[in-house]
Amino acid sequence: MPNTFKNSISGSIGNTETTVYTAPALTTTTVIGVAISNRIQSDISVDVKMYDSSASKNIFLCSGSLVPRTSNLVLVGGEQKLVLEENDYLTLSSNIASSADIVISVLEIS
Predict the structure, then answer these.
(1) What is the assigned CATH class of domain 3-109?
(2) Predicted TM-score of the model (pTM)
(3) What backbone torsions phi and psi does residue 81 show, to the nearest 5 degrees?
């Protein structure tokens, strides 16, 4: 089983819910970091959701979370981890167009 560290980076995300990471087929992924950055001069609020494909459920990891102007929100890091199975995915949306960047650091085990 190879273990591969990867980053998934998405920029200028806004009002449309955008898939920012999908666990590949035949892979279990440990999310070791999620950082969301506010790229504009106004406060924004963000939603991050996780879709569990085996349970066919979509849940919020955070809903309407404030990211002050020129600041960031660390959603996963340190001792916090998140496990995604194959075809599970994370989405991000913001209340303002083109306002959020995200970096997701993962360990993929296949």
Answers:
(1) mainly beta
(2) 0.94
(3) -140, 160
Q: What is the pLDDT of residues 26-77, one digit of tens each?
A: 999 999 999 999 999 999 999 999 999 999 999 999 999 999 998 999 999 9
From the number of C-beta atoms within 10 Å of its C-beta (0-12, 13-18, 19+), residue 59 rates as exposed
Q: How many helices (H) and strands (E) does the chain have?
A: 0, 9
In one-letter notation, the amino acid at residue 4 is T
Burial 4-39 (b: 16+ CB within 10 A, else e): eeeebebeebbeeebebbbbeeebbbbbbbbebbbb
In the three-class reduction of DSSP (H, G, I as helix; E, B as strand; rest coil), residue 38 is classed as: strand
